[in-house]
Amino acid sequence: MLSDKRLAAFAAAIVAAAALTPSLTADDSVKIEHLGTNNTLVRVTGDGDILLMPVQESIDDAKVNVLVDGKNERTMFVRLAKSKVDYKVPFDLTPYKGHNVVLNIITNQSRANVREAKDDACWANFSVTDSFPTENTEKYRPAFHHTPLYGWMNDPNGMFYKDGVWHLYYQWNPYGSKWQNMTWGHSTSPDLVNWTHHPAAIEPDGLGTIFSGSSVVDRNNTSGFGKDAVIAFYTSADASQIQSMAHSSDNGMTFTKFAGNPVITLDSEARDPNMFWHQESGQWVLTLAHALDHEMLIFTSPDLRNWTLQSAFGKGLGCQDGVWECPDLFQLPVDGTDKKKWVLLCNINPGGPFGGSATQYFIGDFDGKTFKAETLADGTVPTKWLDYGKDHYATVSFSDAPDNRRTVIGWMSNWQYAAEVPTMQYRSANTLPREMGIFTGDDGQLYVSSAPSPEVDALRGKAVVNRSFTAKASAKKFNLPADNDGICEIALDIDTRTAKAVTLTLSNAQGEKSAITYNAAGHTLSMDRTQSGIVDFSQDFPAVTAAPVHNAGPISLRIFVDRSSIEVFEKDGRAVMTNLVFPTSPYTTLSVAADGGQAKVQNLRIYPLTPAAN
Ligand code: FRU
Predict the structure, then answer these.
(1) Please, which contacts does 565-569 make with residues 24 or more away whose CB atoms are closer than 8 Å?
(2) 209 lines ligand 1 (CB under 6 A)
């Protein structure tokens, strides 16, 4: 007979042995060892370049420490599959060739014992391979908008133009299609519409994950990192949000982090540093979102290394409902005058005109230290929005764009439901690139316009429709280009004449539709996506959005339809609306109808847009 003590020790030894028995794997390229209820080792034993990690989206993140020869190389958070595998994400093993790689995984599931942990779906689905398929497997992946190859994306950030190349960085999770592990993903383009994907540019480190920021080309080597070095500033986000710097001497392909990071610290939440060279005062200026204080801080520096806080803008002004994020400050000419004004973009979440996240802006003056917004006659500062759709956020501009252009890109989603939209291999696209301008509205105030960048025109194929006609109550119907899934640009001029409104409806055989209406009396452009297709993944998704139109008389519209988005631009971007839509099959038909009278529709053109190689 064993004594109770020896019996207990024996039982413990059996449990330990069971725990250490490797569980079944798909092949022998990994070896799994369960150490405890919530702790498992995955040993890489195969030779391939990529470790595939199985993900289940509804599961909590597991903490994954990557040990290389026993040293913790990095920590990532991955929703490792418990009951089913939704998709797999790749971990690049090539930097560790010839070394011993082990994942030390701490799962976050509540389990009774080690035996239960062994049942998790992920263990049998880890494997080492030589390739990770990145071809598009999703029907909603846009054809001519930038998307990440795989994984989650939010804000575009750190964008610059140099030597004929547009560099776009973005908030990226390489290890899943929900927000996590913030890293700067990187794509480049010669023309803002055809994008090439590159390896991650800036990855998390001991100071935190890599939140949004900006990049500049240091033409005069003010920072000492070399003439024409690309300097990036970003927020290192962990327990605190602090501002860090990285420099690149290969045109932004790879970055070296500054040894003296962090460069700017505050004892309150602050993020998304955005820099530019201020010619008049001969110094660098950096705006920083003082998120919870609902204001933007303005710093200056001679050398990008030493920063002085000069002022704060925004407390109590504009929309104060959400956190303030992703600032951008730049000067623009005022259309039709010889004046220039400064624009401060101020992304906020929530508090947008139709709920959730949106981009507000202020127009005013900047003297190198302080931004002052223009006021109305009664002394108040008006709230203005750059885009009146639900899916336009974190918009910031490229630095150093050619020909004095102020080119911006926004994130085409909304924090309300971005993680729930019906895609999986990737999540989120960016908006079309847009050119900023300032115009005078019919109320005498200045507004920012946002027009499609001229490069977008090159996507047009031969028009499949080219018609002028009278729009009446019974709709005139036109086919969208069927051979490329209805992906198109619709351009037209509308003179409402006796009609109260003109509605353009995109629809499919399932009866799903998105309706864009110009209301003549109200001077509004609206879009109804309540019956646009799949809308039930979030109660915040079905919506009617509306934009004021600052324009008496006939209007011109350009409508860009991609697989899961509609962008509407009125007259050179004086009214803009960006909305996602998820029709179960592509829209096939455009119907044009007038309400309460007859309207003249001129030059209706439907151009198929040739999908870019995204
Ligand atoms: C805006 C934002 C930024 C932050 C980033 C994190 O969408 O919240 O303020 O830097 O996303 O991914």
Answers:
(1) 565/142, 565/145, 565/391, 565/412, 565/429, 566/506, 566/514, 566/516, 566/527, 566/529, 567/389, 567/431, 567/432, 567/452, 568/389, 568/516, 568/525, 568/527, 569/450, 569/451, 569/452
(2) no
Is the minimum distance from the CB of 82 to ligand 1 under 6 angstroms? no
Cα of 155 from ligand 1 centre, angstroms: 6
Distance 325 CA to ligand 1 centre (A): 7
- 10 has pLDDT over 70: no
For residue 441, report the distance from its CA to the centre of ligand 1, in Å.
32
The encoded tokens of residue 199 equal 């390896």
Ligand 1 proximity of 398 Cβ (cutoff 6 Å): no
Pocket of ligand 1, candidates 180, 274, 325, 328: which has the most ligand atoms within 8 Å of its Cβ, to mutate?
325
Q: What is the pLDDT of residues 385-404, one digit of tens each?
A: 999 999 999 999 999 999 99
Phi, psi of 498 (to 5 degrees): -85, -10
Mutate to test the pocket of ligand 1, among 272, 288, 427, 428 (most ligand atoms within 8 A of CB): 272
Give pLDDT tens digits for 566-592.
Answer: 999 999 999 999 999 999 999 999 999
Structure-model confidence comparison of residues 122 and 134, the more confident one: 122
Which atom of ligand 1 lies at the shortest distance from residue 411's CA? 7
Of the candidates 211, 166, 208, the one whose C-alpha atom is nearest the C-alpha of residue 187 is 166
User: Number of H helices and number of E strands within the chain?
Assistant: 2, 42
Q: What is the pLDDT of residues 599-613, one digit of tens each?
A: 999 999 999 998 655
CB 212 near ligand 1, within 6 Å: yes
Inter-CA distances, 37 with 72, 105, 113, 409, Å? 22, 11, 5, 46
- Secondary element (H or E) of residue 16: helix 4-20
Look at residue 612 in the predicted model and tell me its pLDDT.
59
What's the CA gap between 543 and 273, in Å, rounded? 33
Q: Is the pTM of this model over 0.90?
A: yes
**pLDDT tens, 154-190?**
999 999 999 999 999 999 999 999 999 999 999 999 9
Q: Which atom of ligand 1 is nearest to the CA of 182?
A: 12
